[in-house]
Amino acid sequence: MLDILSDFTLQNVMIGATLLGIISGVLGTFAVLRKQSLLGDTLSHAALPGICIGFLVAGTRSLPFILTGALLAGAAAALVVVFLTRTTRLKTDASLGIALSVFFALGIVLLTMIQNQGNAAQGGLDSFLFGQAAAILRSDLYVMGAITLTAVALVTGLWKEFKLISFDPSYARTLGLPVLALEVLLTTMIALAVVVGLQMVGVILMAAMIIAPAVAARQWTNKLGVMAALSALFGVVSGLVGSVISASATGLSTGPLIVLAASVIVVTSLVFAPETGLLPTALRVRRDKFSLKSRLVLGTIYRLAAEHGDPAYPAEQAMIDAFHRTDTSAVLSRLEQRGLVRSTAHHPEPTPHWVLTPKGLEQAQTPLDQSGETQ
Fold first, then answer.
1. I need a labelling partner for 90 at 20 to 30 A (CA). Which of 167, 258, 295, 327 fits?
2. Residue 371 has pLDDT above 50, yes or no
3. What gap in Å lies between CA 50 and CA 46, rounded to an integer?
4. What is the largest CA-CA distance in the chain?
5. Are 98 and 79 in contact (CB under 8 A)?
6. What pLDDT, on a 0 to 100 scale, did the predictor assign at position 266?
7. What is the pLDDT of residues 328-355, one digit of tens each?
């Protein structure tokens, strides 16, 4: 493992994956909270014509030109979405779909045209579709690092404004904030995240890196700051795990493995997150149902005792089962463990009988909304 980690190419890939995880995690948080998950997909696909135009302008596979073209194309797609949403009856999802289709189709046309020119410099240009992490150079990392640093600095400086337009844009307008300008800036920054991830995972899979870490982080917290930090952490972890697995095996692409690692984090979060996870929720529901059933059985024993005018009246288990139309053995055992009832014999009847303990009598007399069962 140490031999693998000392590899210069892998080091470049891991640094790039870390930068990608940070920027996509932080900015993806706002995309998810603003219910614009499709935005990352749109901007990543819209980057393809920019990549091709950057290549045509530079005449070679120059990363600064290509990334600049991708950023401008993504920003143009974002402006198209804003224009369609504000000037037509189209909803946001329809506008995003139109921008995605048109820009990606244009990118495919330009890519095909470049490949048909026979220019040897275009070799590897199609790798931006699915990413080619191994081709990242140390000079590329400087560009990616500068973009990441700029994006994080902008988010930090405009944290309150971005937070306000994400949760209550109408209130932000009443405060005199330039909501439209802030939305355009935030969208452009998401395009920056797409630019950072082009070489790592490509335009096809980049949408997953914008959305997956933020979706996973959302399951663990209700605080924006914590969610952004967790999202960045999940993005970094998925990037590093995908990079190491790709380096330790032959013929495995780094980009798809990074996305798969992020998907595993999402699934794990959806299942095991304490508040919203499927498993904890199912356990809480089961516990609440059992707790309610315990309260109802306790109330049944209490009412039987009250009707007979004897707090220590022994209620027959068969009668309790008949009243609730189910076997209550497990519930009665649980109540006995908690010291609320105790089993007793009632001659000449051989069947089990149950009596309220003083603690159980007090519990049964407590109103349901004040009972410890419902707290």
1. 167
2. no
3. 8
4. 102
5. no
6. 96
7. 888 999 899 989 999 988 777 778 889 9
Report whether 116 contacts 125 (CB < 8 A). Answer: no
Residue type at 15 in one-letter notation: I
Residue 204 has a pLDDT of 78
What domain range is 14 assigned to? 2-274
Residue that terminates a domain, selected from 214, 240, 274: 274
State what percent of residues in the chain have pLDDT above 90.
28
CATH number for the domain including 61? 1.10.3470.10
> Do 146 and 173 lie in a common domain?
yes
**How many residues make up the chain in this entry?**
375
Per-residue pLDDT at 373: 46
Reported as type and span, the H/E element at residue 344 is: strand 341-346
In the structure encoding, which two tokens stand for residue 95, read together?
């506008």
Instruction: Decide if pLDDT at 134 tops 80.
Output: no
C-alpha to C-alpha distances, 204 to 44, 174, 200, 247, 248, nearest whole angstrom: 7, 39, 11, 22, 24
User: Which pLDDT does position 124 carry in this prediction?
Assistant: 61
* Across 235-249, average pLDDT: 89
**Do residues 171 and 250 share a domain?**
yes
* Residues whose CB falls within 8 Å of the CB of residue 83, separated by 6 or more in sequence, listed in order: none
Tokens of 281: 């929720």
* Nearest by Cα to 166 from 150, 149, 187: 187
Answer yes or no: are the C-beta atoms of 273 and 280 closer than 8 Å: yes
Q: How far apart are CA 235 and CA 114, in angstroms?
A: 33
If you ran DSSP here, which 8-state letter would residue 275 be given?
A: T
Cis peptide before 350, with omega less than 30 degrees from 0?
Answer: no
User: What H or E segment, with its residue span, contains residue 353?
Assistant: strand 349-356
One domain, residues 69 and 145? yes
Please state the rounded mean pLDDT for residues 260-279. 94
Q: What is the amino acid identity at position 309?
A: G
Q: Last residue of a domain, which of 254, 274, 294?
A: 274
Model confidence at 2: pLDDT above 60: no
Asked if the structure places residue 375 within a domain, the reply is no
> Quick one: tokens of 50?
């920019």
319 lies in the same domain as 173: no
